[in-house]
Structures are given as C-alpha cells and as structure tokens.
Design brief:
The complex is a heterodimer of chains A (308) and B (379). With 308 residues, chain A is an alpha/beta fold. Chain A has 2 domains: 5-222, P-loop containing nucleotide triphosphate hydrolases (Rossmann fold), CATH 3.40.50.300; 228-289, Alpha-Beta Plaits, CATH 3.30.70.920. Chain A contains 11 helices and 14 strands. Chain A has helices spanning 45-52, 74-80, 96-106, 112-123, 138-149, 168-183, 195-198, 218-224, 237-245, 267-278, 292-307, and strands at 5-16, 19-30, 34-38, 60-65, 68-69, 81-84, 156-160, 187-192, 203-208, 211-216, 228-233, 252-256, 259-264, 284-288. Chain B has 2 domains: 54-175, abc type-2 transporter like fold (3-Layer(aba) Sandwich); 182-378, no CATH class. Helices cover 65% and strands 8% of the residues of chain B. Chain B contains 14 helices and 5 strands. Chain B has helices at residues 8-24, 26-46, 65-76, 89-97, 111-117, 132-148, 182-213, 215-221, 226-254, 264-288, 292-309, 321-329, 331-345, 349-378, and strands spanning 54-60, 80-85, 103-107, 122-128, 169-175. In chain B, strands 2-1-3-4-5 form a 5-stranded mixed beta sheet, sandwiched between helices. The radius of gyration of chain B is 27 Å and the shape is elongated. The chains are: A alpha/beta (308), B alpha/beta (379). The A-B interface holds A 53-57, 75, 78-79, 81, 83, 85, 87-92, 103, 106-107 and B 213-215, 217-218, 220-224, 378-379.
C-alpha cells in the first residue's frame, strides 16, 4: 500500500438479493484530497460509502481504509472516520449540545466538555445550544451534522450528499469549510448531484448502476469523454431541437435558456447534422467546451444503454 | 371546476389508494385478519369461567368405604381431579403452596368409624383461593356432596343418618384469600400485565424509532457494539418497570388492602427476570418491525394471548389443554404465579423455583433470537 492512499479498495461487490448494487468497484483516494463521488440516484454511491466505513460487509473485493482492512478492522476504522449520512441522522429530540455530547461520549473523547463547547463556538451556536436539533432549519442541521462528524478529529470524512436541500449560500459556506478541513490534512470523500460541487473537488469519480464509468480531475474527465459540444442560438429553437434529436450522431440536445447544447462523440457527423442550420439566416452555431454536466448526462445515457 | 361539490371520482380515488396502501403494508393487513381470528379462538374456545377437573391432593388417614365413596363423589362431580396423595400434612400444604393443586382434602383418622357412630367427622377441604373465581363453583358443589354422597352407603340401620344434619361436617378453608376478595387476585396480577404491555411496547418502539428516523445508521457508524446498544436501550426501561411496580404495590397495599405476606425483596429480584424477558420480546419485535406502527401491532399481538391465557382474566385451569400449553410458554403466566405466590401465599424462593426456570428459558431463547436478528439487520 502506498502510505499516501487513505482509501485503497479494489473489486468491491455488494448484492442485495439478486440485485448487484455495487459491481467490481475500485477507488484510490490520496491524503488531503477532496474526492467527488457522482452518479445518478440508485447508482450505489451510498452503498459504497457504507462499505468503506464498515456499515456494510462487501460480498467480494478487498482493500484498506486509513491503512486498515475494511473487512476485519471496521471497528478501528469507525474511530477515525466521520460519516455524515444523507438524511439528517442526529436526534431531533435532543438539544444541539446534547447531541454533540452524546457523540463525544460514543468516541470516548478526553476533555469532552471543552470539546463540545469549542464545537458550539465554532458553529456559532453557543447561545442556542439548548435548542432541540429538530427545530433547526436545513442549513443549520447540516452544519450541526458536520460539526458532530468532525468532533472526534477523524482522518477521513465521508459525506453522503451533504448539501441536498440546502440553499446556495449555505452550500458555498459548507464547501469553504470542507476546503479548510482538507487544507488541514483531512481527506474527504463526498457524493453529490451538483455540478458546481463536483467542480470544487480535486478529483471525481462517476459511477452508474454500481459500475465506475470514469474518474480523474474535472478536465481529465471532460477530455476523456471525447464529447464535442456546439451551441446553437437563433429563432425557433424548438423545431431545431426536434429535428436534431432524431439524428443518430447527435447524442444529446438540451435547451439552456436561449441556446441549444448539441453534443456527440463523432465530431464530423455532428457537424454534418448541424450543416442545414450553420448558414441559416439568424442562426448562430459555435463550438463550445462541453460542461461537466454535458459529460455526465452523456455518461448516464450511455450507461442506461449498457444496462439494458 | 366542480371542486366545491362531492365528487364520486375523487372519493373513489382516495378509497382505491387506501386499498393499495393497505395491501402493500402486509403486516398491518395480516394483523387486521389475524387479531379477530385470535380473539375468536381465545374467547370462544379457550375461556371458561366454570373450570372443571381442578387438581386436588388427598391426605387420607382413613381407608374406610365411606372415605372412598366421598372421594369418588368429588371426582364424579366433575370439579375435582384427585391426582396427588399426600403422606403428611406438611406435604399436603406444600402442594397447595407451590400451586401444584387447587385443593387439599384431609380425611381424618377414624372417619368411617365416626360416620357410623353418627358423630359427624370433619372433612377438611382447603382451597387455594388466590383466584376466587377458579374455586367458587367447586366449593359450592361440595355442600351437595357432603349431604348426599354417603346416602347409598348408609343403608339398613344407618339409614337414619342420611338427612339432617349431614352425616359429616364439611369444613372449607379458603386459604390465602379467606374472604374471596377479587382485588387480592387482580391487583398483583395487574403488575404482570402492566409490565408486559409497557415493557414490550416501549422497547419495540425505542429501537424502531431509531430506524424510522434514520438515527440508527448514525449510531452504527460510531464505534459502539450491538450489545452496548441493546443494554443501553433496555436498562432505562427496567427502571421504568420498577417505578410501575412501586406504584402498583403501594396502591395494592394502601388502596385495596391487599395483604403482602411474602418478601418484597424476593419479588423485586425475581422481577428482573420477568422484565428482561419482556424487554427481549420487545427488542426482537423491533428487529422485525419496519416502523413504529408495526411495532405497536406486534406488541398487541403478544399482549392479547398474554392477558387471556395467563390466568390473569380467566382461571388458568379452566382452559383446554392446548390453551394451557400456550399459556405455559408465556412469561406472564409464570410471573402471575410468582407474584401471587409471594404476595398472597408468602412463597419463598424454593416454592417458586418451578416457575423461575421457564422464565429463564424464555429469556435465553428470546435474547438469542434478538441478538441474531440484530446482527443481520446491520447488513
């Protein structure tokens, strides 16, 4: 094992009944890295994260998390990992302070009272510490959950769609904090659906139907997709869209406001398909860099095809 | 739109949706069908407020034909089943105290001789009257037996002994509850019933709630062992159970004047076993139930036979054999005997040993199931 790899797993498989949820999955995450975990709903992201922190036993595969075997050392892994569940999973009928205190006791933290107080101060919740967690808004719940997850100074943070249902400002602040934690040496694996969040990750992996589709930095992922994109603007885009959607070389057409994004992997064929519009009056067709979203939707479409 | 008026289509839509959801929630559906069936069977077949063939022990110091005729008459009445013979008074009373028999019959020495002489020997029948309902009809039948049973034997010169006054003197002792006060039986029994209901339900809900709210996943992601969770969740409810017991015992004493003959210390020690057994049942339910509603339904499913078949509401010995077998498998049945034994009869540890081991066995079996199920639900 490379000492710098915090997560190093190979060939993970998890089945629920006859359904294979995670299929031959491998991932390597370096120390201090923010690793984005993307994929459509039900693609096995949560299951993979649960296997990494010992909540689920993989049916096949092996590997280490923080240098510890994920099969045999799950108890030791749990001590050094902070896991933030997708759904708020702290006790709504306990106060903010009581929740933090409970977590501190679970990890057997020394100087418990001081650490809980520090966490409350950092959160800016010291004066509301006796409020019940259930009364907090979505954004505050998320901040409380993060504070509780890092209370025991974990080396690895696993975040399962941490910003679902949180407003953009709170999301921005949340990510600022994640970056601060990463600077301080914490490794973060985060699953998300948001493209702007994916772009804030050092590296990303895209999984669909339990299989890894692509991984690398954002630029690498875009480059590896071989996807070419054109922006079309002009009158009556609805008709253009209907027309293009039928062409086999055009893999994706999507309207973005007053522009149409047209993508495909075979550049010449797409250009040929666009030909009638290129010189049409009032029409403007121009090459564009595909966005991460274009790439992901392209991957999603392709994986559905594979799946069927 | 016609949204202001009653719309048959909308009403139908709601109803169809309700049926679909009912069908999806298999457990609820099963309960809705199973509970009436269970009630029908239990109330219809198992319950009998006029119990017959109650076990009785005889201490016979006389072997005259008269004594034998009398015993035969008791059996023929249908109320008594003489299935023990005691050799000494101590043995006879032990059989009664430990609950092996409902009645202890003593036929004194010289019984037959005294009948012939017309000096009216005493026939002593001691009844375990902790549950007055169980014994009242049997005891009422005794008067008739004492009056007429010996008639066929009293022939010839003895004919004159037949009618008034009775040829024998019937002496009935209602032990443990001489005045036949129903509260003496019901109030201690309530202790077991209330504990069963609250303990099973509380634990079933406590664990299911964690799962329903998603906090279970959080708990499991932390370095805590299943056994620590189970113990930590169960112990507070044991404390709740004791609070309930203190309330009931105090009320029994002050409000209902129930005598407390035996040791409260012994009772509170034995109680742990019973409470733990119920909590283990609740914990097992929580590993099966998907939500709190199901946990409630399962608790009810356990509670119903417990109150009906344990001897709490109806005399245990009045039930058919199959119902008694089920009753014996329930912790409440044994606890009722223990609590009545200690409070009313003054039972000591040795007297209740026979009820302790089934409780222990139940606890062990259910705990094993609970822990096994709990491990599986981790994955």
């Amino acid at each position: 094992m490379t000492p710098d790899l915090v997560i190093d797993v190979r060939g993970l498989v998890k089945r629920f009944g006859a359904k294979t949820v995670v299929d031959d999955f491998s991932i390597q995450v370096r120390r201090g890295e923010i690793y984005g975990f993307l994929g459509p709903n039900g693609s096995g992201k949560t299951t993979t994260i649960r296997m990494l922190c010992g909540l689920l036993t993989p049916d096949a595969g092996e590997g280490t998390c923080l240098g510890l075997d994920i099969r045999t050392d799950s108890a030791a892994i749990k001590r050094q990992v902070g896991y933030m569940t997708q759904k708020f999973s702290f006790w709504e009928d306990l106060s903010i302070a009581e929740n933090l205190d409970f977590v501190a006791r679970m990890y057997g933290l020394p100087e418990r009272k001081r650490r809980v107080r520090d966490a409350l101060d950092r959160l800016g919740l010291a004066n509301r510490q006796n409020q019940l967690a259930g009364e907090l808004s979505g954004g505050w719940k998320q901040r409380l959950a993060l504070a509780a997850c890092i209370l025991h100074d974990p080396k690895l943070l696993l975040l399962d769609e941490p910003t679902a249902g949180v407003d953009p400002k709170a999301r921005r602040e949340f990510w600022d904090e994640i970056h601060e934690l990463a600077h301080a040496g914490l490794t973060v694996l985060v699953s998300t659906h948001y493209m702007d969040e994916a772009e804030r990750c050092h590296r990303i992996a895209y999984i669909a139907y339990g299989k890894l589709m692509t991984r690398g930095t954002v630029d690498e992922v875009i480059a590896a997709s071989n996807l070419r994109t054109w922006a079309v603007s002009g009158p009556d885009l609805g008709r253009v869209e209907r027309d293009l959607a039928g062409k086999p070389s055009v893999e994706m057409v999507a309207a973005f406001g007053t522009r149409l994004h047209v993508s495909g992997t075979d550049a010449d064929a797409v250009e040929a398909a666009l030909e009638p519009w290129t010189h049409a009056p009032g029409m403007c067709v121009a090459r564009e860099e595909p966005t991460l979203e274009d790439v992901f939707i392209h991957l999603m479409n392709r994986s559905t095809d594979n799946f069927r | 739109m016609m949204s202001g008026r009653f719309s048959f289509a909308r009403f139908l839509a709601v109803m169809v949706k309700e049926f679909i959801q009912m069908r999806r929630d298999r457990l609820t559906f099963a309960m809705m069908v199973a509970i009436p069936i269970m009630q029908l069977i239990l109330f219809g077949f198992a319950i009998n407020s006029d119990p017959k063939r109650l076990p009785a022990a005889v201490l016979a110091a006389d072997d005259s034909p008269f004594a034998r005729t009398l015993v035969a008459a008791m059996v023929n009445s249908g109320y008594f089943a003489i299935n023990r013979t005691a050799r000494s008074e101590a043995e006879l009373h032990e059989l009664l105290a430990e609950g092996h028999v409902q009645f202890a019959v003593t036929i004194p020495a010289g019984f037959g001789r005294d009948v012939q002489r017309g000096t009216r020997p005493v026939l002593l029948v001691e009844a375990d009257a902790t549950d007055p309902a169980a014994t009242s009809n049997a005891l009422a039948s005794l008067t008739q037996i004492a009056r007429n049973a010996l008639d066929p034997d009293l022939t010839g010169p003895l004919r004159g002994l037949r009618s008034t006054p009775d040829p024998i003197e019937l002496r009935i002792h209602r032990r443990y509850n001489p005045e036949g006060i129903t509260q003496y039986n019901v109030v201690p029994g309530l202790m077991g019933t209330i504990l069963t209901m609250t303990m099973v339900m509380m634990t079933a809900l406590a664990v299911t709630r964690e799962r329903e709210r998603g906090t279970m996943e959080n708990l499991l992601a932390m370095p805590v062992r299943p056994f620590e969770v189970m113990l930590g969740k169960i112990l507070p409810y044991i404390a709740v159970g004791y609070v309930q017991v203190v309330i009931i015992v105090t009320a029994a004493r002050l409000l209902f004047g129930v005598p407390i003959v035996g040791s409260l210390l012994l009772l509170s020690l034995v109680m742990i076993l019973f409470i733990a057994a119920n909590l283990a049942v609740g914990f097992t339910f929580s590993t099966v139930a998907k939500n709190q509603l199901q946990a409630m339904q399962m608790s009810f499913f356990f509670f119903l036979p417990s109150i009906l078949l344990s001897g709490f509401m109806f005399p245990f010995r009045g039930m058919p054999d199959w119902a008694q077998v089920i009753g014996e498998a329930l912790p409440l049945t044994h606890f009722l005997r223990i609590v009545r034994g200690i409070l009313l009869k003054g039972n000591g540890l040795t007297d209740i040993l026979g009820e302790l081991w089934p409780l222990t066995a139940f606890l062990v079996v259910v705990t094993v199931i609970a822990l096994k199920r709990y491990r599986q639900t981790l994955d």
